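// run 5 | inverse folding | seed 20
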């Protein structure tokens, strides 16, 4: 078990480093100059003082070679210091810290909705004996995956805000203002989860151990939830780990549609202004959330199936 955990931690560190490096290289090759934009804010380009631009370049280290900039920013990032935002001059940690609570609240609620809706749909579709109802339920996840997120958001706003007036359409208006954005994020996420879990459940229900449990007199509900669902949940857990990162990315669109303050709007503004420190901070945070979620999933695996640790140890010994 110790070797299994250490291997997963090493993989997590590698993913964080790769995400930071790729984001740095991509941002470095983007056209435009954030320092010139910052120095010339509110002025014509001809009125920008070249000495001011040179001073800003030196302050942010943009006058140094790319490798020197990379080494400098990577060393700071390891310590959790991403410098100051180019556009506002505020520390990146403060900028992200102010926006983070709203985004975490949104993504956590959306993940809860996705697990409840997607898991419930998969269990209901595989439990029912009515063929037409099963086909109908199993056709819903592909539909949910294919529908654009912004379109789902607009439909929810039209139905529940403008017509029924149950929830506010825009802003960060407490728990009520969180329902529609979270549902918008949860629809495609829950649909993907339902697809994987339903397929795994159908496969598990055809296994020999399920027939054995039925032969021993176990009821349908017990067989479905205790025997089949436990083994079928392994692929679904993998999907949940991947979907956490997708929820963070989807918050950019959802927070824009619902005019919510959060990490998504900060990211959109930083990309538009080519604010490299802020974008790198966002990428590093997103990668951290992603690897943490997948690490938790990897550590839960052995609790559901101890053979995973044994198989991992055998591969390491063979190597």
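// decoded
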């Amino acid at each position: 078990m110790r070797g299994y955990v250490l291997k997963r931690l090493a993989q997590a560190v590698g993913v964080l480093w790769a995400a930071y490096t790729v984001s740095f290289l991509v941002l470095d090759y983007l056209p435009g100059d954030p320092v010139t934009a910052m120095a010339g804010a509110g002025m014509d380009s001809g009125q920008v003082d070249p000495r001011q631009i040179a001073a800003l370049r030196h302050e942010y280290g943009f006058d140094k070679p790319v490798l020197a900039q990379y080494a400098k920013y990577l060393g700071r990032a390891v310590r959790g210091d991403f410098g100051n935002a180019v556009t506002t001059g505020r520390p990146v940690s403060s900028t992200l810290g102010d926006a983070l609570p709203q985004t975490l609240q949104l993504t956590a609620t959306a993940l809860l909705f996705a697990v409840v809706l997607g898991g419930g749909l998969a269990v209901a579709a595989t439990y029912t004996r009515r063929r037409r109802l099963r086909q109908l339920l199993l056709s819903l996840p592909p539909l949910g995956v294919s529908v654009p997120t912004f379109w789902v958001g607009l439909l929810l706003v039209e139905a529940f805000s403008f017509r029924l007036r149950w929830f506010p359409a825009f802003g960060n208006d407490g728990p009520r203002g969180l329902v529609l954005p979270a549902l918008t994020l949860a629809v495609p996420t829950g649909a993907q989860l339902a697809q994987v879990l339903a397929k795994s459940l159908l496969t598990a229900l055809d296994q020999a151990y399920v027939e054995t449990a039925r032969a021993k007199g176990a009821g349908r509900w017990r067989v479905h939830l205790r025997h089949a669902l436990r083994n079928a949940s392994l692929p679904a857990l993998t999907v949940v780990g991947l979907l956490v990162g997708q929820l963070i990315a989807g918050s950019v669109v959802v927070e824009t549609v619902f005019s919510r303050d959060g990490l998504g709007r900060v990211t959109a503004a930083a990309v538009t202004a080519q604010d490299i420190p802020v974008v790198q901070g966002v990428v590093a945070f997103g990668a951290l959330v992603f690897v943490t979620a997948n690490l938790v999933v990897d550590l839960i695996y052995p609790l559901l199936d101890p053979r995973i640790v044994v198989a991992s140890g055998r591969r390491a010994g063979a190597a």
